[in-house]
Amino acid sequence: MNTSFAPSDIGLASAYAVFMLMTSILFLACYLRMTRRERAFATITGKGFRPRRIRLGHWRLVATVVALFILAVGVVLPLLVLVWASFLRFFQPPSLETLRLVKLVNYERLLASDTTRWAFSNSLILGVTSATTTVAFVALVAWIVARTKLPGRKLLDFLAFVPIAVPGIVLGISLIWLYLSFPLPIYGTLWIILLAYMIKYMPIVMRIMSASIAQVHPEMEEASMICSSWFMTLRRVLFPLLRPGLVAGWIWVMAHAFRELNTAILLANQQTRPVGVAMYALWNDGAFGALAAFGVIVSLVVFIAAVAAHLAGQRYGLKVR
Predict the structure, then answer these.
(1) DSSP class of residue 113?
(2) One domain for residues 221 and 265
(3) Residue 134: closest CA among 252, 264, 275
(4) pLDDT tens digits along 184-199
(5) Exposure of 215 in the CB half-sphere (CA atoms within 13 A)
(6) 153: Cβ–Cβ under 8 A, 6 or more apart, which residues?
(7) Is the pTM of this model over 0.90?
(8) What is the torsion angle, in degrees rounded to the nearest 10, for the CA atoms of residue 227, residue 229, residue 231 and residue 233?
């Protein structure tokens, strides 16, 4: 994007971003036209509702084998190689001879590093905060777009989708220019990175929440509001029905916040660098063993967070059948 080499051509990079923005506007117009009749997509209504399962029949075994193959090649094998590399100072192919070189030195180095602890702390704060605030804010915006007749509600949908066309590097540069000239002292703090995460992840969460709300027929809310307040309807009717989308959006933002690099690398400093920036520094230093160990720990943390969110969803009514 003409910013990976020096001197950076910010003007040309911005021109590319504008072209991508125009393309996204075209696709967004098509999306809004296809989904303008939102009630046609409602699956949860006041009548009896039960999801219909599609039986694969003889294709069940084939689908299972293909799914397991994709999972093994795309997830399991890369993680196993990452775990193997994390126990070696210098990477070598797995063999019985290299087993004697397996040590915990990379993990010991990371655990003893203040930089690592700061990076995990920053990423945990940014991940939880950005996931919670983004999902809460976007859920409100999606409800306004889908359920109200306020003028300009389609503009809200458009503004929530536009950031998907802006590359992370361009977004980071824009925020730097803005808050170096705007009298709000958030440059060089976690606040500016949090703002960047919210802007960057808003489009995907907006699509998740819009789809979730479109599946709930308005008659569910209308029936509830006959005998209760809007707040009670939100808490007892709408929120439980939207919980799968809320949990999915929260997990998605949390996982991506932990691996974010191209935006955070421009906005972070030594005290505010998240995990992605710290891992990039290890790559530049050639510490590939420590980098692999770092990747294993990050993957484990994100997996635990996803499992915790899933269990919390089941505890409060989100059940997968």
Answers:
(1) -
(2) yes
(3) 252
(4) 888 888 999 999 999 9
(5) 16
(6) 144, 145
(7) no
(8) 20
Q: Report CA torsion sign: 43, 49, 51, 53.
A: negative
From the CB of residue 245, how many other CB atoms can be counted at a distance below 10 Å? 23
Full residue range of the structural domain in which residue 298 is found = 111-315
Q: Cα-atom radius of gyration of the chain, to the nearest Å?
A: 23
The C-alpha atoms of residue 167 and residue 165 are separated, in whole angstroms, by: 6
Alpha-carbon distances of 29 from 22, 38, 60, 161, rounded to whole Å: 11, 15, 38, 11
Structure token digits, residue 185: 């002292």
pLDDT in tens, 149-158: 888 887 888 7
Q: Are 196 and 290 in contact (CB under 8 A)?
A: no
118 and 73 both lie in a single domain: no
End-to-end Cα distance, the chain: 44
| Three-class secondary structure of residue 151 per DSSP | coil
Buried b (16+ CB within 10 A) or exposed e, 269-291: eeebbbbbbbbbbbeeeebbbbb
Cα 86 to the chain's mean position, in Å?
26
Opening angle at CA 257, ends 290 and 188, nearest 5:
85
Tell which phi-psi region holds residue 2, choosing left (phi > 0), alpha (psi between -120 and 50) or beta: left
Burial class (CB in 10 A: 0-12, 13-18, 19+), 244: middle
Distance CA 124, CA 278 (A): 14
State the average pLDDT for the chain.
80
* Cβ neighbours of 159 (radius 10 Å): 14
Residue 76 half-sphere exposure, CB side, CA atoms within 13 Å? 7
Q: Over 90: is that where the pLDDT of 66 sits?
A: yes
133 and 279 co-located in one domain: yes
Q: How many domains does the chain contain in total?
A: 2
Contact 193, 274 (CB under 8 A): yes
